[in-house]
What we know:
single chain; alpha+beta; 4 helices; THEM6_lcsJ_thioesterase
Amino acid sequence: MAGLLRNLITxxxxxxxxxxxxxxxxxxxxxxxxxxDAGIRNLKSDRYLQFAECAQLDFILRCGLLGKLMRxxxxxxxxxxxxxxxxxxxxxxxxxxxxxxxxFDERWAxxxxxxxxxxxxxxxxxxxMKFKQGRLTVPPxxxxxxxxxSRPAQLDGWDAALQELT
Length: 166
C-alpha cells in the first residue's frame, strides 16, 4: 500500500512539471526515508526499488512521455533491475534520486537511478525496460532523445550475466 500511495503522491507532485524536460536530461526527485521504509536504522533494500519506480514515473511524467504512451496505447515493462549498494540510507534521511536514460537500442532502454543522501552516493539502481504496444515491442528511439554516443561497458556485463541465467 505504501508504494501505491508514494506513486500517487509522485504523480500529483510531478503534474506541474509535465513536459518541461527532455528525456536526455538527468532529473532529480527527493524522498523522505520514513520509519515505514526502514528496518532497524536503515532503508530496507526493497524500498530502493520502490523509490526507483517512483523516480521513473516522475521522469516519464516530467519528460512528457506519459501522454505519448497513453495516446499511442503503449506501456512500459521492466525486464530486469540491478542494485549496487554503497552506503546505507539512514531512517529520517532525505534521499535524492537522480534519474536518467543511460542508453537505449532498438528494443531496450536502460535507466539509471542514483541515490544520494547527505551528499554521498548511496546506491545505484539500473532498470532495463522496453515499451510495448500489445505484444509488439516499440523502439525506444521513437520516444526518447539520444542517450549518449556509445553503449556503456557496464551494460555488456549485466546483459552477459542475464544471458547465463536463461
